Amino acid sequence: MSFSEQSNFLSMWAVWKGLGTRMKNRTTWFCWTFLVLACPLLGQSPGEIGYKVITAPLSPYNQIGEPVTKKLPANEVQAIDLSSVEAEQVPLGALPRLDAPFYPRFFLSGEYLAWKINNSTINPIIFNVPQGLLEIAPNNLTLNQNGAVSSSVSIANLTSLLLQSQPTLSQNSVIDYGIQSGTRIGAGYTMEEDSGLGLTGNFLLIGKTSYGLSSITGRNSFPVLLETGFSNTINFLIPPVVVGEAATIQSEDFAVVLGRQIDNAVYASASNSAVGGELNLRGRDRYFGDMSLSPLAGFRYFQFKEDLGVNGQFHIFRPAGVTDDQVTTVDGVATTVPTLLDFPNPIDIVSQSNDLIKCYNHFIGPQFGFNMNFDFDRWQILSTAKIGIGVLHQVVKIDSSTTQIITNEVATKAGNSSPITRTTSTTNTTSPGGLLFNPVDVGSHSRNQFGFLPELNLKIGYRFRPQLKATIGYDFLLLSRALRAAEQTQLNPYTAQLNFNGNGQQQSFSQALQIPAFSYSTRDLVINGLNLGLQLDY
Fold it and tell me: Which of 89, 117, 134 is the last residue of a domain?
């Protein structure tokens, strides 16, 4: 018996002897006897049970840590078996569930995105020559045997100069932005570190990316002869072979045409950008072996913006050294026959147009999905699938104008033997409407549609440090019924009715044309590509 135990025994014996002389009651005597016998047990030192190994909670970073051994003042080691503990009866957070990874209280992640947006195609473009009617003055001439004009009759008639030209853009009018760079910043807060219940969110940004197309034709590429539909008639007076016989007349018709050259240039530039954000509530994990599955629900905003600008110049002109007069030579004598008299003849037409369309697609609505993860020591396979269902607010802004510069020539002739006098004048006008849109399209248009926004994320993660994880993966995103800037114009058939009332004449022409117009046209926007990121846990 140790010294401390002997002291305790002697002290209690003295107390018992003193009280025994005063208390004669048997019941009291028995109680004090029991206390005396129990004193050595109650005063025993607690250091003889030994060492106990208390299993540490699983590391917040998937079992990287080791069990912690707590030393008690003894010599024997004993392990506490926690498998018999009913986890369902322990308050959540008081004891980690077996095989359940701890989640960090907070996390912050950043990712570089290399995404590809599906291509779009610019609809056909038509140049319309702004000039309408031309007054043509075909002549009926009679030339005598000396080649001189003996008689001349000129009657003014009208012909149409409503021409159309369709340029071909490079790359077959396909807009291909290639790989676009972006970033995604994520953050989260875990309310239950052992179950994964918490809030997560991210912010997405794809910077502005541009793509250009062009179509340029040289001045000598498109020489044209504009047929007016009229003819000059030249009557040749042939003298008789036999004296006394009358002279004969031989007539020839020469079509009245105008020689012109066409030069056009079109430049198209498209650009796009995207921005978005989401906030989700992540549910508790459910485990199936090494796989964990958790639901999520939240709210999402996504905007895709695309612009298209088209600048065009159409130039139709009379080449140098070319006239609109016809020269007839008979027996070495040249006779000039004016095609147009006393009426403006457009010898140079420049049409400069500028079109700009901006399309905004705003998706706003709730989303639902799930997370599915696989854990293998330091490695993780992470997957998220979700779908947003909400309102797709679409806005289209159109700006379109055309500047026309027309140089007219007026030819006059006093008589058959008089020279032809020519004067020129230039007019400059600007009006709404251009290559892609007509005047009534200019302005802002908006509407609301029912939209879907499904998304799939697949990643592989590796934890270099307990609080640092690197990931690489693949993203797929689809926005249904989106507006693409290049596809919001179409060509509509149109019949032009041209009327003229002047110089004592009334004439009209009908001509079938194609004019551009704005029209809502939707298609699915598909975005997919790779992501590379880091996640910091704390």
Answer: 89
